[in-house]
Amino acid sequence: PVLPETVGMINRETFSLMKPTAYLINTSRGILIKENDLIEALRNGVIKGAALDVYEEEPLGESPLRMLENVLLSPHCAGMSKNAILEIANGNKENILAISQGRKCRNVIVGPFPNRIWNG
């Protein structure tokens, strides 16, 4: 999730801890990565490459990421595969059954808005 402690959590320091053969894959939240630090790490061979489906600012626009050969970019659509959609549907079905049987839902997130999330 995007929280004050997760914004920019993948940064120059994080990249320096990675192997030079590492690939960064982000399909969660773009703001978790400091893109300028990622660009620097990719240009300098600190990491091997990156595959990104989300960005600090969306849409991506005229980013230097578009010019790097060791980057694969997609337009914030990676979570919409057939298998992902089936998994979401199955999870919803399980949660509906759980509620109807008086059990708690699986994967309940109690975040900054607990009054808006039913927790059984």
Gyration radius (Cα, Å) is 18 Å
Shape: elongated
Helix content: 25-40%
Q: Beta-strand level of the residues, as a percent range?
A: 5-15%
Tell me the total number of β-strands. Answer: 3
* Count of alpha/pi helices: 3
For the biggest β-sheet, the strand order reads 1-2-3
Helix and strand run: HEHEEH
Explain what you see.
The structure is a single chain. The chain is an alpha/beta fold. 28% of the residues lie in helices and 9% in strands. It has three helices and three strands. The chain has helices at 12-16, 35-43, 82-100; strands spanning 23-26, 49-52, 71-73. It has a three-stranded parallel β-sheet, with no helix packed on it. Helix 2 links the parallel strand 1 (23-26) and strand 2 (49-52). The longest helix is centred in the C-terminal third of the chain and has 19 residues, at 82-100.
Give the arrangement of secondary structure elements:
Elements: H1 12-16, E1 23-26, H2 35-43, E2 49-52, E3 71-73, H3 82-100
